[in-house]
Amino acid sequence: RSVSAAFRDHLRHLALQDFPCGRGSWNKSRFNGHRRPRGSQLGLQTDAARQEEAIPLDEESPEVLLELLSDPHSPWALPPGCSLQDQRLREMAVLAPEKVRGSNIFQIFESLRIVGKGVEEVDEGLLQFQQLEELILSTNQISRITSANLPRTLKVLELCCNAVADLQDLCTQPPPELQHLGLGYNKLCGPLQNKYLTADFWPNLVSLDLSFNNLTDLVGLISQLSSLQKLRILVLQGNPLALIPTYRGFVVDSLPKLSVLDDTYIGPDERDQSHGLSRQSELLRSEARVVVSIGKIRGVPDPSAGQQLEVGSKAPVITYSYCVAYEF
């Protein structure tokens, strides 16, 4: 399923061309001839003082139609969980329905959110969104992103909770003005992906989320990230490389312009305490130790209460053995 298909399904759910939105017998006199309703792009407001002609008895005023959309008890109200942008689109469909018809609707969006819709493909239909600056595609099934299908105007690209394992296609023609790239909870493995995380591909990147992947090469990754001169926010928690004892201090000292690491602000004291760690690569080990303490175990016999057998007894002996597995 493509992003464009999910977007079309969402528009059908909003019913922008059906009562009380769109054009029909309920507002036909407002759009006769060359008259057009007044308003701005997404913040359209109606003003009763601007109504030059009386509303016919068999039609509804814009105020009444808008009330049908906003009243939570109305059968035409949006269900809970819909975004503010969805509400504004429906208001626009009342006040200026021509703006949400056909290809005109693509010029409205500066932000597009398609979350949890089973999307697998980022298709070229996205190029119709010529004003798009923010694209949220979290919690889908995307494994491959062709950068040629992304609008060049993008500043925020969020791909959290997908199945992205390779950044090569994303970095072929990346949006040049991108400021945030979210790749948390994907399937990235190092060190092959490190080479795609440099200023050659992301010269304006300010925020980067790589959390909860399978990145293991801390030294190699930080070496590439050091070329991102505008990077201020970095999230690496949840990767195996974050288990290294000197992980945080090494990153803080290696990236002096960084302000936030793993959602925690880097203060002057921490910066001073980490000074010099980036030059002590011997402190970085390729292994980590995890200590697991077991509390009470219920539902199994107590091994300490073993059978007390008399010498020479021929009674059967019952033994118990247990296997405990840890999955990381």
From TrEMBL:
Record carries keyword Nuclease: no
Coiled coil: none
Keywords linked to the UniProt accession: Leucine-rich repeat, Repeat
Gene3D superfamilies from the UniProt entry: Ribonuclease Inhibitor
SUPFAM superfamilies: L domain-like
Pfam families: LRR_1
Record bears the keyword Repeat: yes
One GO CC term, this protein: cytoplasm
Matching PANTHER family: LEUCINE-RICH REPEAT-CONTAINING PROTEIN 51, NISCHARIN RELATED
Protein name: LRC43 protein
Species of provenance: Upupa epops
